[in-house]
Amino acid sequence: MLSHSLPRHFVRLFAIAAALTSLTGCANTPTTTSQANGSCAPDTASSPLRTSASDLTISRQTEAALANRIIELTNQQRRNAGLRPYRLNCAELLQSVAIGHSASMARHNMFGHVDRYGRKPLDRVVAADPTFTGLVAENVALIGFEYRGSFLTRRRNALAGVRVEKLAHDFVGNWMKSPGHKKNILRPDVTQIGVGVAIDANTIYVTQLFARPSR
Q: CA-CA 20 to 30 A from 144: which of 58, 60, 118, 161?
């Protein structure tokens, strides 16, 4: 008889920031394309949590809900810190690049700011839009779930029943406990945000991009 085993989770985080006031040329490596997780999050930082969002459990179909909730909670942190204006606007360019990086990390079992082509966050943004100049900062994180116990138990879907709301708070909460990640979230000199989520087996990859275009 197999004993019941609950999933445990592990977390990894990285943060980086880069800025260019002018740039010539762009990365010549292939770009990663991905379907968007969904539309940018509305400004609900001052609104109560929607019941429908808190009831969702994580799956490939709820990647958009997790991305949007992370944006909402990020803006809440900025508001709580007294930033004016606190709200970061969700930019389609950043959203697309963030999604592509998360998908690439999941697909190729990599984690960090440098992708498999050697590109850093700013390189990826410029590859997607060669006209971009300005500041770019990035937080990346993964949360993995796994079962302890027998081989059959470990094969179970450890994400089953994991709530989007809890995951969103876990990602943002862990970033806020890390000085480098917190600094990016509370940067007063950024105006835009994009968040990309990718799920591979029982691991969730999240890329959070910030920017302040110079034009």
A: 118
Alpha carbon dihedral 78, 56, 38, 113, in 10-degree steps, equals: 60
Q: What is the CA radius of gyration of the chain?
A: 17
Instruction: Give the sheet arrangement for strand 7-20, strand by strand.
Output: 7-20, 134-147, 203-213, 192-200, 89-90
Beta strand 134-147 with 203-213: parallel, antiparallel or unpaired?
antiparallel
What 8-state DSSP symbol labels residue 62? Answer: G
Helices (H), 46-137: 51-54, 63-80, 92-108, 121-128
Q: How far apart are CA 51 and CA 174, in angstroms?
A: 24
Summarised one tens digit per residue, pLDDT across range 23-41 is 222 222 222 323 344 456 4
pLDDT tens readout for residues 65-87: 899 999 999 999 999 999 988 99
DSSP secondary structure letters along 147-189: E-SSHHHHTS-TTTT-BHHHHHHHHHHHHHTSHHHHHHHT-TT
